[in-house]
Amino acid sequence: MISKESSLIRVGIVGASGYTGGETIRILLRHPQVEIVQAT
Q1: Which of 5, 17, 19, 36 has the most CB atoms around it within 10 Å of its CB?
Q2: Single pTM value for the model
Q3: C-alpha distances in angstroms, 20 versus 2, 8, 31?
């Protein structure tokens, strides 16, 4: 069985302070297999 932590996709977002970056973060926070590791 695959553990939840090993199946996470680690994501960094450039431009997170803008509108599109903020919307991207909002969407990715709801995704069960994504871990946001950096936002600039």
Answers
A1: 36
A2: 0.73
A3: 33, 23, 17
